[in-house]
Amino acid sequence: MNKTELQALIAVLQVRFEAHMPRHPELDWALVLKRLDKNTAAHKALAQMEATGGEPDVILQDSASGQLLFADCAAESPTGRRSLCFDEEALAARKENKPAGSAQGMADAMGVQLLDEVQYRHLQTLGAFDSKTSSWLATPDEMRRLGGALFGDRRYGRVFTYHNGVQSYYAARGFRAGLWV
Known about the structure:
By secondary structure, the protein is an alpha+beta fold. It contains seven helices and eight strands. The chain has a four-stranded antiparallel sheet. A hairpin with a 2-residue loop joins strand 5 and strand 6. It is globular and about 50 Å long.
């Protein structure tokens, strides 16, 4: 990422941060910028989140470490990350009608994590997300070993967490990324 691209990304993040202060009322942009300056590895991941339609913004701060959690805040699951099965093992096992990739594989390539259920529910307190789509969520190992994975959405004014087989994929299911900076 060159200097011009980085400046453009930082400008987009700042505008979004300032436009959505209720997501992070205790924080100011100077702190976010300081953390970004110290973590150059995050620049590429945030650029990928932005490029795939995630609209990343800060939604949490860890009180012990001071780290900030950037998460996808697009109203619907990011358009550039849909129609994916859960992980690479599920993708390899699928013999017919394979999707283009997997949520976990794409997240790993981007340098981000899938939001977990707690983070997803917190995100949903900040706005109405996934009212027409759904998002794969980080899944406990014991559930994954049994062939299942979690996903979440918002329907009928409520947030739901469901399960599905890891090999399944749908045009309206993607994943929401999280990145600690």
